[in-house]
Amino acid sequence: MPPSRPARHARAARAAERFGWTDVLASISDAIVVLDADGVVDEVNPAAELLIGIAASQAIGHGAARAFGMRRTNHWIAELVDATLREAVTHRRAEEQLWAAGRDVVVSAACAPILDAGGALRGAVLVLHDLTLQHAIESATRRAEGLAALDAVAAGLAHEIRNPLGGIKGAAQLLRSGVQDPDLVRCTDMIVHEVERLVGLVDQLQDLGSPPALRLEPVNIHRIVNDVIDLERQAPEWGTIGIVAEFDPSLPPVLGDPAQLHQVFLNLVKNAAEALGGRGTITIATRMDPGYRVRRHGDHQKILTVTVTDSGPGVREGDRARLFAPFFSTKARGSGLGLALCQRILAQHGGTIVHEAPDTGGARFRITLPVSDSHGH
């Protein structure tokens, strides 16, 4: 026989006394906002502070419209709360845009009335769930399915192109050894250089269509990033570019393939440096996303985030939707495969990559990776 309502209430009261509502709210990864019957904010959990980018001390004591709705994209929060308090029924929004912590995110929302034992309205509780990671994973999955169609094309091209390229390179090198005219020497050197570039493109295409198997091990993401920075700083085109490292030293390792992850961050730092043209700043930041979980191999895992931001001209709005498409490039001699390869490698790792346009200008790429299994529970 199920317990009676008074017994359930008594049990709930004992649980509240034992844990404390603040502790309960703090343990929830979704954003929770508790409001009184007048729509004034009473409680904001840490996940809400992180998502919305507002301290609890700034929100508590203010109405929802003032606390969260000052920007036009956030007006719907106050509307949702008002409807819930007015009708005393739960209202939901499947997807809404929210200006949060300096960027637009997509969230789902539910606002439920809080009723006392007699059915009188005491307030409302608003729950916001960040859909950013879910959307990124869905997008990555769609791209991965599209890239899978390249398998046969890549294999065929690699076979049909690689052998003729080898012959062209050999012939050019033979010619190079038998000519003295400086102009002819330059021509043969150009042929060899361009053949080597095409071979590299074929290799990239083959990796995109049929990526090598991952060799997974616990990886310190900071070591990977630092190795990439040290390597790229030696390039003559680096110029006076400055690096700002905002690393969380407490980050756990990720379970990854060091060589493949090195390739991802090498591509991103190289792209940022090219966008800067030898002058500007690249900021690389790492942190845990305590509210994010992704199901992998049946388990929930914590996620860490790495952002690579440059102070360059940014990406034109019309180009942003195609950034990860194979063969699309904003550079005159770009292959258009670098970001597609990054996306493919990260998808293999159970991670994601998205482009963001910071308000301050430039471009930002946000990478998420699940932490090593031994740290994920």
What are the salient characteristics of this protein?
377 residues, alpha+beta, five-stranded antiparallel sheet, five-stranded mixed sheet, 12 strands, 44% helix, elongated
Give the SSE map:
Blueprint: H1 5-19, H2 21-26, E1 31-36, E2 41-44, H3 46-52, H4 56-59, H5 64-68, H6 75-87, E3 91-100, E4 103-115, E5 121-130, H7 132-148, H8 150-177, H9 182-209, E6 217-219, H10 221-232, E7 242-246, E8 254-256, H11 258-276, E9 281-296, E10 299-310, H12 338-348, E11 352-356, E12 363-370
Parallel strand pairs: 7-9
Antiparallel strand pairs: 1-2, 1-5, 3-4, 4-5, 6-8, 9-10, 10-12, 11-12
Q: Would you mind describing this structure in some detail?
A:
- The chain has helices at residues 5-19, 21-26, 46-52, 56-59, 64-68, 75-87, 132-148, 150-177, 182-209, 221-232, 258-276, 338-348; strands at residues 31-36, 41-44, 91-100, 103-115, 121-130, 217-219, 242-246, 254-256, 281-296, 299-310, 352-356, 363-370.
- The strands form 3 sheets. It has a 5-stranded antiparallel beta sheet with strand order 2-1-5-4-3. The chain has a 5-stranded mixed beta sheet with strand order 7-9-10-12-11.
- The chain is α+β, with helices and mostly antiparallel strands and 377 residues long.
- The chain contains 12 helices and 12 strands.
- Residues 294-298 have low confidence and may be disordered.
- It is elongated and about 100 Å long.
- A hairpin with a 5-residue loop joins strand 4 (103-115) and strand 5 (121-130).
